[in-house]
Design brief:
Layout: E1 4-11, H1 12-17, H2 20-28, E2 32-38, H3 43-46, E3 51-54, H4 63-76, E4 83-86, H5 89-98, H6 101-104, E5 107-111, H7 123-135, E6 141-144, H8 147-154, E7 165-167, H9 175-179, E8 191-195, H10 204-214, E9 222-226, H11 232-240, E10 245-248, H12 254-260, E11 263-266, H13 275-283, E12 287-290, H14 293-299, E13 305-307, H15 313-325, H16 334-338, H17 342-358
């Protein structure tokens, strides 16, 4: 009988888009996959890898939604899974609180980005850090994609230190596929591209404001926004009287959009290691990003342009104009992208699965860093 693996997330699109190479690796190792998340437009995509069980609730922390999700997780915890992976903070926290000890000993928490960064201040980030620290030992392993997140977990003291810490090289981008991507013939030219969840953290409205100001000097510049999320109605309303603003709800052909784009805008307030920035580096498209742990890791040394967290839309517009007129230099970036290629990710993720399964039910005395 094939070993069973339960994969938990808040929404389906996280599982379908963040790390699809993971599911190929798990299946190659004989795992029978079951995904559990809130249903969305990406749910059918998960059927390529395994079964799907819907979770009630989303990324909201409203009590009613959390209660429904907790009830669903309790039901899932009644089954004897051989391996469990959790990879969004809300679901990861609930699972590590609710799951029985024998399932926690088979659980790996894959951290695509803690909800508090190195420079974050205030009550909210402090609460996030405290919760993550308290729950860190309640899983067989913690695996991070960000070097800053890995450093934070490694620095936890004594009893709060995770049992095992592993570092993953991003989320497994097929760099060759993006390097060879053909530009989308129907795309507007020239255009800036935003690609990601349409929410306050990703801040697509800053991209709209920046391009709108940049059009004073470059009236032919357009903006393509690829993504889904709570800000979609706001963007649709803005697009009604802005013919230069194109909305693309979802696509499996991000490479073609990146290859056609003049510049990628990444204005996220908080990122782990953003997949779309790695993809832009592979394509060779210039990147302008807000400073966060992801942009620091990927774009340091001139691989892209990093703007301060407090930069205004006017400052973003001037930088985009600099990319268009060549005053903001752009250098080849494929070398940086290769470090996050699927060829590096697959063996690292396979070792992670093997390590968790080998130690299931036991408490390793020390952390293992890879």
């Amino acid at each position: 009988m094939a070993p069973t693996m339960l994969v938990l997330s808040a929404v389906s699109r996280s599982l379908a888009l963040q790390s699809p190479a993971s599911w190929d690796v798990a299946r190659d190792r004989g795992m029978e996959l079951t995904f559990a998340a809130a249903e969305d437009a990406w749910t059918p995509e998960l059927a390529r890898w395994g079964a799907f069980l819907p979770l009630r609730g989303t990324r909201s922390v409203r009590p009613a939604g959390l209660a429904r999700m907790a009830a669903d997780l309790r039901r899932l915890a009644e089954r004897d899974w051989d391996l469990v992976q959790v990879q969004t903070p809300i679901v990861a926290a609930l699972w590590r609180v609710l799951a029985p000890a024998h399932l926690r000993d088979r659980t790996v928490y894959v951290v695509h980005g803690l909800h508090a960064q190195r420079d974050d201040r205030g009550v909210g980030p402090a609460a996030v850090r405290a919760l993550e620290a308290l729950l860190a030992p309640r899983a067989a392993a913690v695996a991070t994609v960000s070097v800053e997140d890995a450093a934070w977990f490694r620095a936890l003291p004594g009893l709060l230190h995770p049992r095992t810490i592993r570092s993953l090289p991003g989320a497994g981008v097929d760099v060759s596929r993006f390097r060879d991507a053909e530009p989308l013939a129907s795309a507007p030219r020239p255009f800036a591209l935003f690609c990601g969840d349409l929410n306050a953290n990703k801040d697509p409205l800053l991209a709209v404001a920046a391009v709108e100001r940049c059009r004073g000097a470059h009236p032919d510049l357009g903006l393509v926004v690829v993504g889904e999320g709570p800000l979609a109605p706001v963007l649709a309303e803005l697009a009604e009287d802005r013919p230069w603003l194109t909305l693309v709800p979802r696509t499996l052909d991000v490479g073609a959009w990146l290859a056609a784009a003049t510049v990628l805008l990444s204005p996220s307030r908080r990122e782990g290691v953003p997949r779309v920035v790695i993809e832009a580096l592979a394509v060779g498209t210039p990147v302008v990003a807000r400073e966060n742990r992801g942009s620091r890791e990927l774009l340091v040394g001139g691989a892209g342009t990093i703007l301060p967290a407090g930069a205004t839309a006017e400052e973003w517009a001037r930088t985009v104009a600099g990319v268009l007129d060549g005053s903001v230099p752009h250098r080849p970036t494929i070398g940086r992208a290769w470090a996050y290629d699927v060829s590096a990710f697959r063996p690292a993720y396979a070792r992670l699965l093997d390590a968790v399964r080998a130690t299931a039910g036991a408490r390793p005395p020390t952390a293992t860093d890879v």
